[in-house]
Amino acid sequence: QVHLVESGGGLVQAGGSMRLSCAASGRAFSDYFMAWFRQAPGKEREFVAYISWTGSSTYYTDSVKGRFTVSRDNPKNTMYLQMSSLKPEDTAVYYCAAGAKTFTSTFRFTGEYDYWGQGTQVTVSS
Questions:
Q1: Which of 13, 35, 53, 118 has the greatest number of CB atoms lying within 10 Å of its CB?
Q2: Does residue 3 register a pLDDT over 90?
């Protein structure tokens, strides 16, 4: 089992940058593939970014490609989401998630993940 805690959210102006962190505790962090999801008011939770167990593979939803970068530091048990050129439509609660399978091809779906953090609010003002 792993416990996830997000941090780094807040209020930023459009065009600004922000870095989110997801700290993990419990079972070995490198045993999990990881992802960021977000949920805006009145909308379903949506996939943002995925990173594989070692960090060698990453994937992004189209709307954040070129603006967001996901990374992980396994010795520090932490995953990051560096966000730049932020837009008002990026406003949401951002969640980190961990998946325990040894293989995944459906990492864009919430059902693929076993553990979730409590979320951190990101608000981008226009």
A1: 35
A2: yes
Q: Which residues contact 73 (CB under 8 A, 6 or more apart)?
A: 79, 80
Which residue has tokens 């003002």?
A: 125
What is the 8-class DSSP label of residue 87?
A: -
Q: How is the chain split among helix, strand and coil, in percent rounded to 5?
A: 10, 50, 40
Q: How many residues does the chain have?
A: 126
Q: Which of 101, 80, 111 is nearest to 31 (CA)?
A: 101
Q: Residue 100 and residue 55: Cα distance in Å, rounded?
A: 15
How many angstroms separate the CA atoms of 125 and 104, rounded? Answer: 36
Classified as helix, coil or strand, 112 is helix
Q: Using the Cα atoms of residue 19, residue 8, residue 81 and residue 41 in order, give the sign of their dihedral.
A: negative
Decide: helix, strand or coil at residue 126. Answer: coil
Task: Write the DSSP symbol of residue 52.
Answer: -
- Residues 77, 32: Cα–Cα separation, whole Å: 11
